[in-house]
Amino acid sequence: MLHELNPFRPGAGVRPPELVGRQPEIDLVDLMVAKSRVKRNDGGLIIYGLRGVGKTVLLNELHRNVERAGWVTIQFEARPGSAGPIAARQSLGRGVAMAGRRMARFRSAVEDVKTAVSTVSSFALTIAGVSLNLGVAPSDHRANSGLIEVDLEELVADLAGPLQKNQSALAIFVDEMQDLDADLLTALLAVQHKATQSDWPFYVIGAGLPTLRRTMAEARSYSERFALHEVGALTHDSAIEALEKPARELGARFTRDALEEIVRESQGYPFFLQTYGKAVWDITPDRNIDLDVAVAGIAEGNADLDQGFFPARWDRTTPAERQYLRAIVDVGGSTASTAAVADHLGVAAASVSPARQSLIEKGIIYAERRGYVSFTVPNMDRFILRQPDTDS
Ligand SMILES: Nc1ncnc2c1ncn2[C@@H]1O[C@H](COP(=O)(O)OP(=O)(O)O)[C@@H](O)[C@H]1O
Ligand SMILES: [Mg+2]
């Protein structure tokens, strides 16, 4: 068995050997491209789900597809905390600058391109203090108000014509979108809304935690301009394919019961599938992966998860936060009402809200519904139960 050829790849944002079960999102973006060619814009796309389900990988795939179709793109990851807003504006400003450089080479509508590039320069300067040298001075009246929503709308309005005449569009890809500050989020939603009404070729494609579903519901009229897709565990058949196909391509095969055992244990979660797949491949003595190997591999995989995937979050918590997490498990498992958690800890809700807030900022829990918190990682509750309680 060629262990070096191990096709399975657990890791944040690491492309799997076979991207299964994501055709609806891929098709939707292909349709976006096709409609955009005939100057029609039906809005952007928001993908939400827990950690480890494959949002980043899917976003990267969609990004690659639209770049191949000739779109101009900006891609960045939002960050939590007080440094987040500045970092996001820097990424946006730099991304727009790169987009401007690409557009400067457009061959159609040269005068319009010049105007657009001058707006690009002014936007990059205003939003991020980035000075561009594209042979055109920054506009002194467009995208220079310092109000992100106004400036972004003017930018998109001025880019629309040249993009369309060059069979292109502008897409902004935002990962970890739940961490975007309210101003920038509102600006992106509002400008998507405006672009859809005006059929400007502009698209926001975002991914993040399930909190986004609530955020979008609260943004009402704007959220109509987005397709909202939940990505989660793979279906049984897709999970089987995620294991079987890469193995087959390398001349190895799983027995049916081995496949079923791995899929059952993973519950279809992509990160777990990759972890078990990798562990099984590492220990199998030959090209035939049977149930015994699968069971042993799953044990190895679980040990790896307990060393990496779970502690990546748990190890960053304070004793008070760990008590809060244990209380969630005690009262609810993977989801609990915040009132019940406080009650269980025997304190007033207000006194534990700093711990809750900080756990949300650390990306360990999220508040999908008002008054409830859930773990962002599948099976975190089971991991916590395995940890010795040394804090109380
Ligand atoms: N559709 C898929 N099929 C199989 N494995 C996948 C799929 N999507 C993602 N993965 C794997 O799952 C893991 C987590 O992917 P990632 O995109 O980082 O998830 P998220 O961004 O949702 O936390 C990676 O190891 C990746 O290779
Ligand atoms: Mg991710």
Please tell me about this protein's structure.
The structure is a single chain. The protein has helices at 23-37, 55-68, 84-103, 110-128, 148-165, 182-198, 211-218, 220-223, 236-249, 256-266, 270-283, 291-307, 311-314, 319-332, 338-345, 349-361, 380-386; strands at 44-48, 72-77, 170-175, 202-208, 226-230, 253-254, 288-289, 335-337, 365-366, 372-375. The chain contains 17 helices and ten strands. The chain has 392 residues and is an alpha/beta fold. It is globular and about 70 Å long. Helix 14 (319-332) crosses helix 15 (338-345). The chain has three domains: 23-230, P-loop containing nucleotide triphosphate hydrolases (Rossmann fold, 3-Layer(aba) Sandwich); 238-307, Helicase, Ruva Protein, domain 3; 317-386, Orthogonal Bundle (Arc Repressor Mutant, subunit A). The structure holds adenosine-5'-diphosphate and magnesium ion. Residues 12-13, 55-56, 175 line the site of magnesium ion (MG).
Q: Which range does the strand content fall in? A: 5-15%
Evaluate the radius of gyration.
24 Å
Shape: globular
Q: CATH superfamily name of the largest domain?
A: P-loop containing nucleotide triphosphate hydrolases
Mean pLDDT score, rounded? 94
Helix content: 55-70%
Q: Kindly report how far apart the N and C termini lie.
A: 48 Å
**Physical arrangement of strands within the biggest beta sheet:** 2-3-4-1-5
Number of strands: 10
- Total helix count? 17
Structural class: alpha/beta
- What is the helix/strand order? HEHEHHHEHEHHEHEHHEHHHEHHEEH
Summary keywords:
55% helix; 5-stranded parallel β-sheet; 3 domains; 17 helices; binds adenosine-5'-diphosphate; alpha/beta; Rossmann fold; Helicase, Ruva Protein, domain 3; binds magnesium ion; globular; 3-stranded antiparallel β-sheet; single chain; 392 residues; Arc Repressor Mutant, subunit A; 10 strands
